Amino acid sequence: MSKELVQALDALEQERGIDRAVVIEALENALKAAYKKQYNANQNVEATFDGKKGSMTIKQVKLVVLDDDLLDPDTEISLTDALAINRAYEPGDEIRFDVTPKDFGRMAAQAAKQVIVQKMREATREAIYERYADYEGEIITGEVERQDNRFLYIMIAGDQEAVMKPEDQMQTEHYRMHDRIKVLVAKVDDSLKGPQIFVSRTAPDLVKRLFEQEVPEVYDGTVEIVSISREAGDRSKIAVYTHDPDLDPVGALVGQRGARVQAVVTELGGEHMDIVEWVEDEAQYIANALNPSEVTDVIFDPEDEQAVTVIVPDDQLSLAIGKKGQNVRLAARLTGFKIDIKPESEAAELNQDLATDLSEDLTEEETAATAVDESLATDEADWSTDTTPAD
Fold this sequence. Notes:
Helix content: 40-55%
Largest sheet: 5 strands, mixed, barrel
């Protein structure tokens, strides 16, 4: 067993990269615990493993105390008894006695096996975590393995299982065994049971990574994807920007005859893509975000800096709002503004009402001003009469 244990330690260090000293420390702690449990010992004991020979020993540690101070024979030894062993001992010194049982080899072998298995599991878990933690936010291709009430299980990298929650599954897709799909590594959780890798098909960043794969200008940073709002499987809006005045950022994502955007659409099962240009002018950006509808005006709310009213032609109202409000909802998420859509006719009526109210207010003010002027004139006349000197 001694030779085999040393070889096992060598293999762990060389093949798994597990520090030999860490394993020996864990082994010594396990031997100590096994001894105390087996012999119901209350003593202060130390376990020692010889990493070269593979031998293991248990030693009881006792503290040298004055004869009158001896309280616990299991952990203390009187000075008289200590001096009988060696005349150099003084109070406060520690003496170690070999108490290794004759049958300790079997117990030690079992403890060693448990420690090695545990360390191998820990090393495997750590290696998996470190490997896939670097993949967070990135795309990886996997193969659908199985599904239960909690997760869709996907095999990635050939030998590692990842899970997809229901909310990360596209409702428009039906997953079958052995389907190969691209997923975004959303999170790598280093739990006690081992690393768990969560992947997603609904995350907005999946769209971004797919465009990075299809569009060199996005991959190298020439074109920047500023914002994405998405209703997975149905429709996405993407805002893009470039510092290059000679480059059309929207055209870069669309590609010649729509080839680039079509590759992303195909990967996402036909999900519609609205690609708009991000501009610094917030009003223009909001108008762009409501594509494909036309926008007549964007009016900012003076009481809420994140709210706007957007005026559109009457025949563009349904297009601006979209089916079940989807277009304006995605535009609001894309821009970060609360957007209220109004047709031009309603806006004109509103403006007319405002003009009428203003006119009425002005008329009332003019009437009140006239009354004040007349009152002042009367008061002035009265004052002149009252102050005329008598002849």
